[in-house]
Amino acid sequence: MSFTQSLPVAFAIGAAFGCTLERAGLGDAKKLAGQFYLQDFTVLKVMFSAIVTAMLGAFWLGRLGLIDLAAIYVPETFLAPQIAGGLIFGVGFVLAGLCPGTSCVAAASGRGDGLATVGGLLVGVLLTGLAMPLIGGFYASTARGPFTLPQLTGAPYGVVVAAIVLIALAVFAGVERLERRA
Amino acid sequence: MSLTRNLGLAALILGAASPFAGSPFAAPSADQVDRLSKEIIQGDDHVSALQLAAWIRARRPGLRVIDVRSPQEFADFSLPGAKNIPLDRLSRARFAQGDTVVLYSEGGAHAGQAWMLLRMMGVANVYFIAGGLADWRDEVIAPNLPADASPQIVRAFEPVAELSAYFGGTPQVGPAGSPPTRMTPSHAPAIGAAADLVALRRRGC
């Protein structure tokens, strides 16, 4: 599939993703910040559901021969820079109450904080690009390639899938109980 | 039962069945195997050490020279510009679409197996050095011109000698082990012709 052919597909997937985030209420900064204060577990439930759905979908569609799993792009792991990036991301997330996806959703629904976060995000990307001569070494350090959980644990793919589903269901049940108590 | 519970139950069933479902990765198709065997028969799977040397010297865009030996062996000696990706880390390697990947190992077996693994992973433009580092030594570092070579062969040897000198080698004239002889460059024929010459005296493939 060429770049021009894949663009409409990317647009459709992006629109569906944004729509789902909006329907889940994730365009609301208070709801997102609530996750960090352990008052609202919507983010955890939505994101973990998405991970489990995508994982089960990829596994079983691959197993049934409907998709070629080897052709799916797996982002590369850069351990130290991604830990640092995750921490910065987390601080920005709780500060703005939005993450990149949800800030676009908030901006699209006309919220001022969403527009400001998207603006900040673009400035951050620009500054990171400009600082690349300084941070380039760290940026590319501790490279592990496209590293997956079956590679890390040495367990078969199916066992990892089962373990994550069990963890997710246990977490869902746990937070439901927490929310009911609150 | 609520929708949430139904979805949770469906995830549980699919998740619990996963360990018994086998690998989700498709086995190579007969078509794929046929294509790869054709590449092997046509010799599209390997390049000579001399060709690799010419590519390195010409700074061929997108050239990735990959040493599939252990990090210790790589630390002891490696080809110019090579990157170490041992066999057990090959699955995590990433190559861009326009890359020309050349694999080498001590002999040729591991590099050949790495070629197969990368081709199965869908990496295009992959080659390996059939005789490994021994080929690099014989063809690039210490190429040998027979003492009784015809003028045509002597002319064909000139670019090989130039390439060898570029990589710090010592081209030799006469029986192996004789004192190194410096070749005088003149009208250099293409590397392909020189590679044919080297192929004449290669010890098998």
Topology:
The complex is a heterodimer of chains A (182) and B (205).
Chain A: H1 3-23, H2 29-36, H3 42-63, E1 77-78, H4 79-96, H5 100-108, H6 112-130, H7 132-139, E2 143-145, H8 149-153, H9 157-181
Antiparallel strand pairs in A: 1-2
Helix pairs in contact in A: 1-5, 2-4, 3-9, 5-6
Chain B: H1 3-17, H2 30-41, E1 46-47, H3 49-57, E2 63-67, H4 71-76, E3 83-84, E4 100-104, H5 109-120, E5 126-129, H6 132-141, E6 144-145, H7 151-166, E7 172-173, H8 191-200
Parallel strand pairs in B: 1-5, 2-3, 2-4, 4-5, 6-7
Helix pairs in contact in B: 7-8
Describe the overall structure.
The complex is a heterodimer of chains A (182) and B (205). With 182 residues, chain A is an all-alpha fold. Chain A has 9 helices and 2 strands. Chain A has helices at residues 3-23, 29-36, 42-63, 79-96, 100-108, 112-130, 132-139, 149-153, 157-181, and strands at residues 77-78, 143-145. The model of chain A has no long low-confidence stretch (mean pLDDT 90). Chain B is α/β, with parallel strands linked by helices. Chain B folds into 2 domains: 3-136, Oxidized Rhodanese, domain 1, CATH 3.40.250; 142-197, no CATH class. Chain B has 8 helices and 7 strands. In chain B, strands 1-5-4-2-3 form a 5-stranded parallel β-sheet. In chain B, strands 6-7 form a two-stranded parallel sheet. The termini of chain B are far apart. Mean pLDDT of chain B is 84; it is low at 180-194 and 196-205.
| Radius of gyration of chain B from CA coordinates | 23 Å
Q: Indicate the percent of residues in helices of chain A.
A: over 70%
Structural class from helices and strands of chain A?
A: mainly alpha
What string, H for helix and E for strand, traces the elements of chain B in order? Answer: HHEHEHEEHEHEHEH
Determine the N-to-C terminus distance of chain A. 50 Å
Which percent range fits the helix content of chain B? 40-55%
- What order do the SSEs of chain A take from the amino end to the carboxyl end, as H and E? HHHEHHHHEHH
How many distinct helices of chain A? 9
Number of helices of chain B: 8
Task: Name the strands of the widest sheet of chain A in spatial order.
Answer: 1-2
Shape of chain B: elongated
CATH superfamily of the largest domain in chain B: Rhodanese-like domain
CATH fold description of the largest domain in chain B = Oxidized Rhodanese, domain 1
Number of strands of chain B: 7
